[in-house]
Design brief:
It contains 7 helices and 15 strands. The mean pLDDT is 90. The chain folds into 2 domains: 32-160, Beta-Lactamase (2-Layer Sandwich); 172-283, Jelly Rolls, CATH 2.60.120.10. The termini are far apart. Strands 5, 6, 8, 13, 14 and 15 form a 6-stranded antiparallel beta sheet that branches. The chain is an alpha+beta fold.
Length: 286
């Protein structure tokens, strides 16, 4: 018998790597970042309802990744929330299924190992596979489940979003854009401009856009902050003025990076010869 076992081990060791790999399965794993977003969506829904609940997101084995106990939520709901989430994950179905079974007379469901037969646990599904679950406890059974469903729905919506295409801009196109200063590309919440300036500008305020400036050539005096003089709204979320008072002045040159938060007045007060610089505009959510 010992010889047979040894031969089996040797045979397995001699298998080609491709054969061994063929025996392994790949699976999607719920990340902490995704779990945070799922819990965040559920928290937003809970706060809309003024609900005091515990929100738990677990992996496919039922182990917690994120736990949120909202203000003034009873301590007892912590273990119940974990139990609901774990049930939905390891049994791959909403925990309400088991509560309904008990209500309908199948008392044996109470004896299922690892099961918490209470409404409020919802599985997280990607590509037909359960990758985790979310459980909510603290309010009425239906409200707990509604809050959990909102988290699961946010996860499903995020998984359906198409990936953004890669934007490639050849060097010649970029160089030509700097000749007069032109937009390079636009996204849902960002813009990238190739900016060129020969002379001073006026004061600008972007109420939603944060400007990230990277100097490529030349030098200039940039003034940030202060109070806008003769400010006028020229279009939604854009204010212009003749100058600013009380701002901070600094000389910026090649290689410098300046980040100007949205709502901050800024202007090129002096320009020492032509300057070229990238501007990345990132739009805030609100």
């Amino acid at each position: 018998m010992k010889i047979i076992k040894t031969m089996i081990v040797l045979a397995l060791a001699l298998l080609p790597p491709a054969v061994v790999r063929a025996q392994l399965l790949e699976k999607k794993v719920l990340t902490l970042e995704a779990a945070d977003k799922i819990a965040g969506a559920a928290e937003t829904e809970a706060k809309k309802r003024n609900a005091t609940v515990v929100i738990v997101v677990v992996d496919d084995g039922g182990y917690p990744l994120v736990l949120k106990r909202l203000n003034d939520t009873q301590v007892a709901s912590v273990d119940v929330g974990i139990g609901k989430a774990r049930t939905a994950a390891i049994f791959r179905r909403p925990s309400k299924v088991f509560e309904d079974q008990v209500k309908n007379g199948r008392v044996a469901a109470l004896a299922l190992p690892g099961a918490t037969p209470l409404q409020g646990g919802v599985p997280l599904i990607f590509d037909g596979k359960v990758v985790g679950a979310i459980g909510v406890s603290g309010n009425t059974p239906q409200e707990d489940e509604d809050i959990a469903v909102s988290g699961a729905a946010a996860f499903e919506a995020a998984m359906r979003l198409p990936s953004s295409p890669v934007t490639y801009l050849p060097a010649k196109q970029v160089s030509n854009a700097f000749v007069k200063g032109m937009p390079l590309t636009r996204g849902m919440n960002y813009k990238v401009d190739a900016s060129h300036r020969d002379e001073p500008g006026i004061v600008e305020v972007h109420t939603r856009d944060t400007d990230i400036i990277y100097m490529l050539e030349g030098s200039a005096t940039l003034v940030t902050g202060g109070t806008v003089i003769d400010g006028k709204t020229i279009e939604p979320e854009e204010i212009r003025g003749s100058e600013s008072k009380g701002g901070e002045s600094r000389t910026i040159t090649k290689g410098d990076v300046v980040i100007i938060p949205n709502g901050t007045p800024h202007w090129f007060k002096e320009v020492n010869g032509p300057i070229n610089y990238y501007v990345v505009k990132v739009r805030s959510a609100n």
